Amino acid sequence: MQNILSVQSLTKKFDDFTAVKDISFNVKTGSIFAFLGPNGAGKSTTIKMLTTVLKPTTGEISINGFNALKEQDRARASFGIVFQDHSLDEELTAYENIVYHAVIYKVPKKERAERVRKALEIVGLWDRREDYVKKYSGGMKRRLEIARALVHYPKILFLDEPTVGLDPQTRRSIWNHIKSLNQEKGMTIFLTTHYMEEAEAVADHIAIIDHGKIIESGTVEEIKKRTETESLEDAFLKLTGRDIRDENNESGIKMRTIRSMRRRNRN
Ligand SMILES: Nc1ncnc2c1ncn2[C@@H]1O[C@H](COP(=O)(O)OP(=O)(O)OP(=O)(O)O)[C@@H](O)[C@H]1O
After folding, report:
1. In a mutational test of the pocket of ligand 1, which residue from 45, 164, 208 has the highest number of ligand atoms less than 8 Å from its CB?
2. Residue of minimum CA distance from atom 17 in ligand 1
3. How far is CA 175 from CA 9, 142, 226, in A?
4. pLDDT, tens only, 177-213
5. Span from the CA of 191 to the centroid of ligand 1 (angstroms)
6. pLDDT tens digit string along 103-156?
7. In this structure, is residue 235 part of a structural domain?
8. What residue ranges carry the coiled-coil annotation (predicted)?
9. Number of domains present in the structure of the chain
10. Is the ipTM reported for this complex over the cut 0.90?
């Protein structure tokens, strides 16, 4: 199996603070890769570098065979992104949001309508396409963001906390959509999540980052075996000394959710 994403000696410094320290890893084509770590570990900084939002201080990133630093446009065309905070236009319909994205990504005009329809069908929102996004629930918005990330046919989808702030039933539905994209469309998924049991259930490969360094990586079974633990959550605790759902983390999630709700309410 080939690697769709290859990262070598990636480092990011903010002045004299090093947020990501010389990390290297590969993501196999067609796999689900979970990137886990406590708050402030360096996950978002890494995802931003992988998706060309942030320039690495040093290191190499290859996406779908393209150098993410030197062939940015082709690298960008190879991936879709769903960030933690909503970035949909609430004053447009679901359909209009997706079309807008298709135009930005230069999807040829004659293919546009068909691709938008398919993307909305995949996440089960075709029948609600004419609704304004401001009428959507949190789960529907997240599904719409996934549809939007699919319209230019990416080879790899980056999902930063795709289920944060959603109720358990909606989380399950989002994971079902993600799994079917992976299994039926062969799309590679790179995700971060605070829900260890969800990572354990869906991911083929896990990498755990702490203080900017990858401290463990492998399949769930390999990690449990090496750490002599019964669950990924216990392994995480043993490796980082911190529960991913400890007080600080929970408040971190709450803060982010509050921030994104405030932003939504302002719209
Ligand atoms: N622009 C910046 N300038 C200075 N420091 C930064 C900047 N962005 C991130 N950092 C710092 O880098 C470290 C890693 O942050 P990052 O957001 O990547 O962590 P994270 O693992 O994504 O955490 P979370 O789960 O809270 O999103 C943190 O100590 C953070 O304060």
Report:
1. 45
2. 44
3. 31, 11, 27
4. 899 889 988 999 999 988 888 999 999 999 999 999 9
5. 17
6. 988 899 999 999 999 899 988 999 999 999 999 998 899 999 999 998 988 999
7. yes
8. none
9. 1
10. yes
Amino acid at the residue 5? L
Determine the pLDDT at residue 195: 87
219 found inside a domain: yes
Quick one: pLDDT band at residue 170, thresholds 50, 70, 90? Answer: confident
Q: Which structure tokens are listed for 138?
A: 């949190």
Which residues' Cβ are closer than 6 Å to ligand 1? Answer: 14, 17, 19, 37, 39-45, 252
Give me 142's structure tokens. 């997240």
CATH number at residue 26: 3.40.50.300
Distance CA 253, CA 247 (A): 10
Strand bridging mode 156-160 / 79-82: parallel
Q: Whole-angstrom Cα distance, residue 151 to residue 107? A: 8
**Residue 173: HSE in the Cβ half-sphere, 13 Å Cα cutoff:** 17
C-alpha 69/C-alpha 8 separation (Å) is 13
162 Cα: distance to centroid of ligand 1 (angstroms): 18
- Specify which residues 192 forms β-bridges with: 160
Inside any domain, residue 145: no
Nearest atom in ligand 1 to 46's CA: 18
Range of the domain at 15: 3-78+190-266
